[in-house]
Structure formats: C-alpha cells, structure tokens
Amino acid sequence: MASNGNVGVGTSTPGNVGVGTGAPGNVGVGTDVPPDVARYREAAAKQQGGNVGVGTTQPTHKLDVHGTGLFTGSLEVRSEISASTNVFAKEIIIAAQNANDGITFGSTSNKPDFSLSSNVINIGAPSQLSGRSGIHAHYAITGSHVSMSGTITAEQLTTSDDLTVGDDINVASGGFIYLDGAGGNSKIQHNNGLELTGGSIVLNVGGQTTISDTSNPTLQFFTNDNSVASGDSIGNIHFQTSDAGDVKSFDLQIKATANHDDGNDASAEAIFKLADAENETEILRLTSDIVRVGQMLSGSTVRTTLGCNNFNSGAKSSVLGGCLNRLSTECSVIGGGKGNCVEVSNTAAIVGGQDNKTQGFVSFIGAGCNNTTSGGYSVIVGGRSNCNNGSCGVVIGGANNCLSNGAGNIIGAGDCNFMNSACSMIGAGRCNRINRPVMVTSTFSTILNGCKNQVTGSYSLVGGGCQNIITEASCRGTILNGKDNCLTHDDSYIIGSDITSLGDCVTHVNNLTYYAHCNNTSFLGTSQTAGEIIYVGDTSVNIGDVYVLSEPSSGTSGWVQTNAGSESTSKGLLAIALGTGNSATVGMLVRGFARFTSDFAITGATMGEPVYLSTTAGDITTTAPNSSGDIVRIIGYVIDDATETIYFNPDNSYVERS
C-alpha cells in the first residue's frame, strides 16, 4: 500500500481506482487481498446486483471498468472479447473452439472491419465470401493496396484495390485471387512470379457477385455493369517497362509439358484458345501447326476479322488483313488491301488491291483498283476500273474494260474495251468492242488486239489493226489486220487495209508477195514452192514433174504429164506437183516460185532466160524444142541457176514446129 492510500498488486505505485459508491477509493486487487477490502468489494457487488464497477457507480457487466487497465501477466478469456477502442498487448493468443472463432473489430451485424479466425483473415470482405478460407480484403491494406515484400501462398486472396507482392503469388487448385475493383482500376503487381496450379485470378468490374471456383488454372474478367459501352474492353493483359531500352520484347508464352510415369517429361501440345463461354464456341485456336479462327463445325457461323478498321458481318467469312475493307456475305473472303467490299453475293473473294467491289455469286477479284463484278462466277484478275457484269466472264487486267452482259466472255487486257456478247474474247488493245445491237446475241467472236475495232457478227475474228469492222451481216468472217477494213459477207477474209468485202467465201488482199528469193539467196528448200496452189483432180503424181489438167472421163478431173512432142499434152492449164501422191492431197503449183534440184536441170543457165516444156515427159528445159511437130511453150524464167530456182508462170500461147 502506498502512502497516498492506493493499494498495488505486484507494484509499489498503484493508480487511482474507484470501487463502490461515493468518492473513488484506492483499492488494489491481488492474491493477498486485505480482509477489509474483500468485504468492501463483496458489499459493493451486492449493492449493484452482483456487478462490480471500477470507475463507475452503475456497472452493467460483472466487471465494468471505466478507465485504463494494465495486466503485466496473462489474461485468459474463454468467450468473446469486444472492444470499441484500442487493445494493446504484447501477444494475443486465441484458442479457437469453432471454425469462426476469432477476433472481430467493428460491426458484426453488417461487414466487419477486421476479423481473424482459425482459417480466415477478413478485412471488410463482401458477404458472398462468408465461410471461405483465406485472406479477404475489401478495404486497402498498407495505403491503397495489399502490399507484401515476401510470398503470398493462399487458397483465396480478395481485395477491392491493388495487390502488390515482392516475391511469388501462388494460387492452389480450387482457390482464387479476387480483385473487386468496382472502379475498374484494380491491378496485380509482382516482382517475381505468378503461379496458377489450378486456381483462378478473378478481376471483377461492376459488381459481379458469383465466383466460380475451378480446378483448371483460369484468368477471369467479370462485369455486369450496364454502363460498359458495346465494344469496350472489360479486361486487359498489359506488359509495361519504365525504360524501353531495357527490354527488347514482351512475350506471352504458353508451354505444355506431359509428365510420364517413368519420370521422363516430354513436350505436349500447347494450345492458346479463346472461346465464347456462354455458347462454348471456339473463337481462336493456336497450336504448333494450326492457326484456326472459328470452331470447325459444319453449322458454324463464326467470322474472322484481322487488320485495321475492317468490317465483317458475313457468316463463315473472313477478312484476313488490310484496312477499311467490308464484307457482308456468307462464305466469302477479303485477303487484304484497302477499301475492298464484298456484298450481296455469297462465296466471293477479293485477294487484295484497293476499292474493289464484288456483288456476283462465286466471284473473284485478284487485285488492282476500282474493279467491280456483279455477274455470277465472274473473275477480274487485276488492273484498274474494270467491270465484269456477265456470268462466267473473265477480265484479266488492263484498265476501264467492261464485260457488260452475256456469258463466257474474256477481256485479256488493254484499255476501254467493251463486250456485251456471249462466248467472245477481246485479247487486248484499246477501245475495241464486241456487241450485237440488233440481233439477240453475238457469239464466239474475237478481237485479239488493236484499236477501235468492232465486231457485231458471230463466229468472227479481228486479229488486230485499227478501226476494222465486221458487221452483223457477216458470219465466220475474218479481218487479219490492217486499217479501215469492213467485212459484210459470210466466210470472207481480208488481208490488208481500206478493203470492203465484195462477196461470200472470198479472200481480199491488197498485194500478194512471195518471199522466196532475194539477192541470190533462195529461201526455198530443195523441193519447195511458194505461190498459188490448187488441190484438184484424182491422179497419182510425182514431185517436181509438170502436168496438164485434163478430163479423163465426163465430169472428172485429172492430170497428165506434159510432153512437148504432142500438142494434147502441152496446151491447157499447167501445174507442178508439190509431192508424190494424190494430186488432191499433195497440191499443184499453178503459179509462183519453184525449186526442185532433183528434177530441174538448169545449172549454167542465164538468169532471166525462158524455161520451156521438154520433150521428156514432165521435165523442163532452157532449150526450146526444135523438131517438126514439137510444141514451143514458155512456162517460166530462171531466177537463180545455182540454186535451180525458177518463177513458174506458163504462157497462154504456144508455137508448133513445122
């Protein structure tokens, strides 16, 4: 007992404690309680209904202390400890009897500010986590986030703000890390490793209340916030460094290892897969040998869209790259390019280029610019501003070419070519046109090249040239080349310029040139001719021999070898056999250049001198026959005695020797 009247237990300086009624007294409570103090305490307790008050005259509990208390030894409590202010202790040991036994600060009727039990550290956690073991935090720890310098290993960790860990974060199978970030700014920061052995990392945006534990390692992004705009991201995986020079690249690696019973590990297939959780539809699959966008199902309506600002609303369709491309049909594809469009038609394709457009069913544009197809089964390979509106038509390239109508047409290239017929072709050139304005169709016609050529006839051909015309009155007509030709008859042929056809089955030529001999050089072989050739008669002939046309019997033609010794075998139409065989097959030269070194004997002759029929059957000679009754008939002239080349042009007159 101190000199001031205070009583201390285990101390020589006891404080002031009021016991009972009246002014506060000085009472020390220990093992050796003075009898008068004990009797005073007993009387005071009886006076207050069995309660003892320290610092109060109206105690409401068995021991009601108003003021401070100090225990230098142990304090054992076998029930709850509740405190509305601070509790200071060197050590608090809780011997939990039940799973939820522990220490609680704050209101127990709503969300406790802090609770500690045998399996839970709970800091203002939401009610849906009640009963779950782990560390739950609804309010920030260590400033504005959960921060630990070591390792967190727990089944469950929940926070409404950031999570910062200096070492590893390990989530066991069935557990999770739950970030209840209503503001959308929660993040996980770690300086070493993040390991998921079967649990989940759940990032909650907008008040998600259901957490689905899973045995598979999972990263989940949740939201049920209606304020999230369509197309906005609700979750991101973000790699960042403060100094770009320190890191060359950021990699997201997915690795798989198969564990075998023999202890030897081997690589297993690593799959990166994105899926629609609601419909369980696979969106993207990446493996070592597969890049697949969309689920491989026959009834799948998935779309593939890559590149920049591309739009794809077509089922089973793909935009694989490029920019500002638009696709709205089924089973179609745009490979890349810019501003390309596939619409209306299904099963269409644009490989690349710019501002190309296809509306044709099963159509194709390879590349180029401003090309358009609207016909089914149509193709534009490339070029610029080409148009293909016909079915089964092809524009290979060029510019401003147009297949307007019809089927099975081709424009190879060129510029400003136009076609509205069927089964026709313009190979190239400029401003060429195939059409049939009067009759129903123009079919099977061709312009190979040239400029401003026009065909309106069927089965016709313009090979080239300029401003050549085959009119609709012509069928099977041909203008090979030239300029300003006009063909208006059937089965006619024009070679040259400024020619107008005069009849059917006629070949029109400006000038006919035989390029057989030039400057002492023969361009003919040792048994060749160049000139006018006919295929008539039914006679066996020998190569290089001269024959006269005859009529062996009424209504039939044939050939007889010439002989200058008789008028009957010397007059009439003469010809040289081009080969050995039937005359109607090998052909007969009636005028032109001839060289037959095995039959002609004109070596040593003078160039330009006449050549005559010989009295030897079928032969020629440079010496005129001189016997009585012989026929002298010039049949040509020597062009080159060294090469034995003659110009065969039989004279229509002859002389008989007397």
How is the secondary structure organized here?
Layout (H helix, E strand, L loop, with lengths): L34 H13 L4 E3 L8 E3 L36 E4 L8 E4 L2 E4 L10 E4 L7 E4 L3 E8 L2 E4 L3 E12 L7 E3 L3 E3 L3 E6 L12 E6 L33 E3 L5 E3 L4 E5 L4 E6 L4 E3 L10 E2 L5 E2 L5 E2 L6 E2 L5 E2 L6 E2 L6 E2 L6 E2 L5 E2 L6 E2 L5 E2 L6 E2 L5 E2 L6 E2 L6 E2 L6 E2 L5 E2 L6 E2 L11 E2 L6 E2 L5 E2 L6 E2 L7 E2 L6 E2 L5 E3 L11 E3 L7 E2 L2 E2 L4 E8 L5 E2 L4 E5 L7 E4 L12 E4 L3 E2 H4 L1 E9 L13 E4 L6 E2 L9 E2 L1 E7 L4 E4 L6 E2 L2
How would you explain this protein's 3D organization?
The protein has 658 residues and is mainly beta. Among the domains are: 70 residues, no CATH class; 121 residues, no CATH class; 35 residues, no CATH class; 140 residues. The protein contains two helices and 60 strands. A 14-stranded parallel beta sheet has the order 20-22-24-26-28-30-32-34-36-38-40-42-44-45, with no helix packed on it. The protein has a twelve-stranded parallel beta sheet with strand order 21-23-25-27-29-31-33-35-37-39-41-43, with no helix packed on it. It is rod-shaped and about 190 Å long. About 9% of the residues have low confidence.
